[in-house]
Amino acid sequence: MPSTQTDLDHFITHLPKAELHLHIEGSLEPELMFSLAKRNRLDLPFKSVEEIRAAYNFSNLQDFLDIYYAGAQALRTEEDFRDLTTAYFDRAAADGVLHAEIFFDPQTHTDRGLPFSVAIEGILAGLAEAKAKHGITSELILCFLRHLDEEAAFATFRAAEPWLNHIKGVGLDSSELGHPPHKFARVFAAAGAAGLKRVAHAGEEGPAAYVREALDVLHIDRLDHGNHALDDDALVRELAERQITLTVCPLSNVRLCVVPDISAHPIDTMLAKGLRATVNSDDPAYFGGYVGENFKAVARGRKLSREQLVTLARNSFLGAFLDDATRQDYLNKLDAYAQLG
Ligand code: HPA
Ligand SMILES: [Zn+2]
């Protein structure tokens, strides 16, 4: 029934929410990729926006990563990173996002010769612009690439030192299988000692044992993805008891074949098991939708109630690295909206 769908879309779009799992490089839309390539006088291996989109047909995480790292090559200057960041926040604002905690992958840029400062200064300029334009608050999370070694992660952490007061936490992303969390135990310990939050991708393609390691060895404050945690009942009970936030990414899960279909997505199973699950977009330019589209996809695919949607939004504020007063302010906005809606 179209009118019901429109009501649901409207409810989701204006539902106050936080986004906690967003790779800023994964928000590079083909149109912006082309305009950056033109501005930077680069040759892209694609002739058109349509050709780029047609290449986004992945059967696993590595298929995606190969194209995601290639796309990131178009980013060359601080201005590029600022434009990328403001484009994401314009979309986020339209999707009812009040607060976003975004990842960036410095090694993707330093490994091709960009100084560490270029990506972070451009992103920070974009975050400041988003706050001024939309009032959206934000935090930045530096991700280590797990297919590289721990020494490279330490070198990145040292390079980040002058900006540590602008970085809320460290994360771990890229190819999961064969790169278990314990590979990064010492650099995560150093980040924790420096007062940073710790998060890690685990249980996306990797087994429940990687989620266990992320908890016990990396001492994570939040779990990115976590789908395969569901394979281990004791682990699920612990995640629920400790109210560890899971940053779940439904459209990413479908596009990377982590789940067979949106109608088989476990988001409501996670809620039913008492897990603090949230909905996020991961790499929206590659996976076909921003956070609002991710909410709409699971709402339809799993026939979620408004109460479940509000719980998912509440979880996003509970799981965010916010100060108590701001968190309460956002929760109050959500409660007021839920009562009206
Ligand atoms: O979903 C992801 N998984 C791992 N690494 C990533 N880097 C960007 N997106 C992802
Ligand atoms: Zn991710």
Automatic annotation (TrEMBL):
Q: What is its EC number?
A: 3.5.4.2
The record describes how the cofactor is bound as: Binds 1 zinc ion per subunit.
Entry keyword set: Hydrolase, Metal-binding, Nucleotide metabolism, Zinc
Q: Which GO terms describe its molecular function?
A: adenine deaminase activity; zinc ion binding
Biological process according to GO: adenine catabolic process; hypoxanthine salvage; nucleotide metabolic process
* Annotated site residues (Important for catalytic activity) in this chain: 225
Q: Which reaction does it catalyse?
A: adenine + H2O + H(+) = hypoxanthine + NH4(+)
Pfam families given in the database record? A_deaminase
What are the binding positions for Zn(2+) in this chain?
21, 23, 201, 282
Q: Which cofactor does it need?
A: Zn(2+)
> Catalytic residues?
204
Cellular component terms, GO, for this chain's entry? cytosol
Give the first-level EC class, as a single word. hydrolase
Please give the NCBIfam families that the UniProt record associates with this protein.
aden_deam, PRK09358.1-6
Give the family, as the similarity comment puts it: Belongs to the metallo-dependent hydrolases superfamily. Adenosine and AMP deaminases family. Adenine deaminase type 2 subfamily.
What PANTHER family does the entry give? ADENINE DEAMINASE
Official protein name in the record: Adenine deaminase
